[in-house]
Amino acid sequence: MRLRLLGIAIASFVILAQAPQPPTKLAPAKPQAATPTTAHVPQIVHVPPDEVVAILGQPVAGPDGKTIGRLIDVLVNEDGNPSAAVIDVGGFMGVGARKIAVHWTALHFAPGATRQPISLDWTIDQIKAAPEYGSATRPAPVVVAAPKPEPPAKPVIPAPPKPSAPPHSPPVQSSPPVQSSPPTQTGNPSRPSPLPPSGTR
Question: What's this model's pTM, rounded to 2 decimal places?
Answer without folding.
Answer: 0.52
